[in-house]
Amino acid sequence: MTSTFLQHAVIASGDLVSSVMGIDRARASGMWIPNSETSQVFLQVSWDTTSVNFARVQLSAGGGDWSVASNTTAVAARLGDVAAPFPFARVQLGAAATDIRTFVFSSKV
Known about the structure:
Elements: E1 4-11, E2 21-22, E3 27-33, E4 39-46, E5 55-56, E6 67-70, E7 75-80, E8 88-93, E9 101-108
């Protein structure tokens, strides 16, 4: 049976990187991105929770990092299976947050 799995990633005011989300076995995923300052939003993944091991997700075609433009309205981004091989993820902003931001990772497990 398939169920929906939700994880929240929080970025504190003044920070670039969110808290860590456990996304093990996630597939068919997406992310709700709150309204924020104009910035690029990146997804980082890792095999453990050590911050030094997180790296940005690359596009499968090698065309750069997976990213979404964020602006004054909320955005829903389709991730598909881009983070599926990794058990942990976090969000990175291109510019420091001016307030607390909460991102929601939604997937089928």
